[in-house]
């Protein structure tokens, strides 16, 4: 991939429903491993900031992802699953946004 192929207009990396299942699944397997989560998700958030991704976009993506899973899950989808995914995505987005903010602080100093 070249730099001209990246940016907010090109979302190939999220083109599979749900977005980035492998990374999310890997993250879920490391929920008790704060070092792994921070070491992986903060740099990922910093890269996203470089592509122009802003904090409100994380809420929009989480909302769409959960809406898609709710629709696909049908009768098997429960409120508890929604709550668990909101918590997981909030945690992932929080670490990514921390990484994004750290890059901004470095760039400003
Ligand atoms: C749960 C939150 C998110 C996760 C786990 C996630 C994960 C990823 C991953 C693993 C990549 C592949 C590139 C890399 O590893 O450096 C990627 C790329 C990308 N993501 Fe996300 N992402 C998230 C949220 C968002 C949001 C909110 C946006 C903006 C709407 C976004 C936009 C992009 C863009 C533009 C790329 C580069 C795509 C390309 O050029 O092919 N992501 N993301």
What report would you give on this structure?
The protein is 68% helix and 0% strand. Helix 2 packs across helix 4 and helix 3 packs antiparallel against helix 4. The chain has a single domain (18-24, 32-108), classed as Globin-like (Orthogonal Bundle), CATH 1.10.490. The protein has helices spanning 21-28, 34-50, 55-73, 79-108. The chain is mainly α. Bound molecules: protoporphyrin IX containing FE. Protoporphyrin IX containing FE binds at residues 5-8, 10-14, 20, 23-24, 44, 47-48, 51, 53, 57-58, 61, 89, 92-93.
Characteristic terms for this protein:
109 residues; Globin-like; 4 helices; mainly alpha; 68% helix; binds protoporphyrin IX containing FE; single chain; globular
Would you tell me the overall average pLDDT?
Answer: 83
- Name the CATH superfamily assignment: Globins
Integer tally of domains: 1
Class inferred from helices and paired strands? mainly alpha
Q: pLDDT under 50 segments (min length 5)?
A: 1-5
Counting DSSP H or I runs of 4 or more residues, the number of helices is 4
What is the global morphology? globular
CATH top level class name:
Mainly Alpha
CATH topology name: Globin-like
The total beta strand count reads: 0
List bound small molecules: protoporphyrin IX containing FE
Radius of gyration: 15 Å
Q: Estimate percent helicity.
A: 55-70%
Q: Helix and strand succession?
A: HHHH
Strand content: under 5%
User: Major sheet: size, sense and barrel closure?
Assistant: none
User: Could you say what the CATH architecture is?
Assistant: Orthogonal Bundle
């Amino acid at each position: 991939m070249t730099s001209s192929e990246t940016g907010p207009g090109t979302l190939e990396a999220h083109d599979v429903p749900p977005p980035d299942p492998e990374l999310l699944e890997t993250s879920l397997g490391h929920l008790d491993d704060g070092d792994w989560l921070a070491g992986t998700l903060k740099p990922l958030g910093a890269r996203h900031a470089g592509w122009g991704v802003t904090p409100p976009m994380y809420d929009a993506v989480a909302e769409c992802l959960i809406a898609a899973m709710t629709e696909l899950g049908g009768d098997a989808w429960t409120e508890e699953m929604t709550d668990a995914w909101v918590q997981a995505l909030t945690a992932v987005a929080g670490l990514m946004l921390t990484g994004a903010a750290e890059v901004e602080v470095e760039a400003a100093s």
